[in-house]
Amino acid sequence: QVQLVESGGGVVQSGGSLRLSCSASGHTSSMGWFRQVPGKEREFVGALSWSTSRTYYSDSVQGRFTLSGDYDRHTLYLQMNNLKTEDSAVYYCAASHNDGILVISLPAGYNYWGQGTQVTVSS
User: Fold this and answer.
1) Contact, 15 vs 82, CB < 8 A?
2) Are strands 43-49 and 55-57 parallel, antiparallel or unpaired?
3) Which residues, in sequence order, are CB contacts of 60 under 8 Å at separation 6+?
4) Residue 87's CB: how many other CB atoms inside 10 A?
5) What is the pLDDT of residues 60-107, one digit of tens each?
6) What are the residues facing 121 on neighbouring strands?
7) CB neighbour list of residue 113: distance below 8 Å, 6 or more residues apart
């Protein structure tokens, strides 16, 4: 069982930046971030494959958000720049034993989830 702990959420003005961190208690093949607002499905934000170091992003965050990771520390980072009000959501970190993009772009592709951290972008 792998446990995930997120940190770094908060309130920021539109155009600002935040950095989320997710620390895992063990290694998996990939890690990713999803976000969710009330009444909507959990949305893929991005993912990183530890074996290939490839990163994947949703179209809505491409060019604004950047994933990076520290393999030795089992930690994934999400740098979020030029934040928009529509980025407001609870952000969830997840870890998967798979690293195929078709799998890790979906919530069902993940084996472990964090508790979530709130990101609020004000106008």
Assistant:
1) yes
2) antiparallel
3) 43, 86
4) 21
5) 999 999 999 999 999 999 999 999 999 999 999 999 999 988 889 999
6) 12
7) 4, 92, 93, 94
